């Protein structure tokens, strides 16, 4: 693996990581929005039930409060968390790939350097032998 290939692979991995991080960011914003919405729904329900001290049956049936809406928000929240976790796992896999590529490149560079050093030693030895023969 030469330097150019290494740079191309690293750039691809960086783009993938940026894409995954953008998805995580968007999903986190959506999760926060859903949590705020759910909190608001619960707060509205609690404030209306505290005014009278009891919850009237009509309050639960009113369009301002719906247990189905809370269940729907919980479901959306669960999906958002699931997608965030999936993207975080994907990000960890990308980081692992990046570490592997870095290790491979370092190993390749070390081997190339060793080979270059051996070649230099061989040339120096040949030069010394040529000078010693004269």
Would you kindly provide a written description of the structure presented here, covering whatever features stand out?
With 134 residues, the chain is mainly alpha-helical. The chain has one domain. Helix content is 91%, strand content 0%. It has helices at residues 3-52, 57-61, 67-133. Helix 1 packs antiparallel against helix 3 (67-133). The protein is rod-shaped and about 110 Å long. The protein starts with a helix and ends with a helix.
Report the sheet with the most strands, covering strand number, pairing sense and barrel closure: none
Helix content: over 70%
Whole-number mean pLDDT:
87
SSE pattern, N- to C-terminal: HHH
Protein name: Cytoplasmic protein
Keywords: Coiled coil
Give the secondary structure arrangement, pairings included.
Elements: H1 3-52, H2 57-61, H3 67-133
Helix pairs in contact: 1-3
Give a short synopsis of this structure.
With about 130 residues, the chain is mainly alpha-helical.
Throw out a few tags for this protein.
134 residues, Cytoplasmic protein, coiled coil
């Amino acid at each position: 693996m030469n330097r150019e290939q290494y740079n191309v692979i690293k750039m691809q991995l960086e783009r993938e990581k940026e894409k995954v991080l953008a998805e995580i960011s968007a999903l986190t914003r959506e999760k926060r929005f859903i949590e705020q919405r759910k909190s608001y729904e619960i707060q509205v329900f609690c404030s209306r039930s505290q005014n009278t001290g009891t919850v009237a049956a009509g309050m639960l049936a009113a369009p301002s409060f719906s247990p189905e809406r809370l269940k729907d928000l919980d479901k959306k929240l669960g999906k958002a968390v699931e997608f965030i976790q999936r993207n975080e796992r994907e990000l960890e896999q990308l980081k692992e790939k990046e570490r592997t590529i870095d290790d491979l490149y370092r190993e390749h560079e070390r081997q190339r350097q060793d080979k270059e050093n051996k070649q230099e030693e061989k040339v120096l030895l040949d030069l010394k032998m040529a000078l010693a023969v004269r």
